Amino acid sequence: MPATLTAANATFHTRGIPKAVNSEVEIIVTDMTGTIVAQESNSFGPFSPNTTSGPFPIQVLNKVDKGQLHPGGSLTLNWLPDPPGAWEFNVKVDLTFSNGSNLVVDQNGVILDSAGATQVVYGL
User: In what side-by-side order are the strands of the sheet with 74-80?
Assistant: First the structure.
């Protein structure tokens, strides 16, 4: 029996530049066909420098097989800063499957800035 996506969550470790309280983060997980399988959009509150926030649940919309996500799927982070500014962080997104296995995206040193990039995309 194939392993299907059952849960997803994201944890953020804010580094030197904090995230303002009203800044919204959108987390999108897509399969190899580009279909959104998990998504969450929330401000999650303020993130102070040198703190870890989460894990925050990501809503699973489609319980796809693990083979539909890896290789070929993607994780997209959209950041809607309010007020304009920058945010420096590490992010860990953990996808859990019905057989107890996990697929983890763990990225360090991410910097998003309203004057430049407000989106990052990672392969699964």
Answer: 59-60, 36-42, 24-30, 74-80, 119-123
Each residue's pLDDT tens digit in the chain (124 positions)? Answer: 789 999 999 999 999 888 988 899 999 999 999 999 999 999 998 999 999 999 999 999 999 999 999 999 999 999 999 888 899 999 999 999 999 999 999 999 999 998 888 999 999 9
* Torsional sign, CA 10, 72, 37, 85: positive
Report the C-alpha gap between 90 and 99 in whole angstroms.
27
Which conformational region is residue 34 in: left (phi greater than 0), alpha (psi within -120 to 50 degrees), or beta? left
* Structural tokens at position 40: 């969450």
Contacts of 34 (CB under 8 A, 6+ apart): none
**pTM to 2 decimals?**
0.94
Strand partners, 14: 51, 89
Domains of the chain, earliest start first: 5-123 (2.60.60.20)
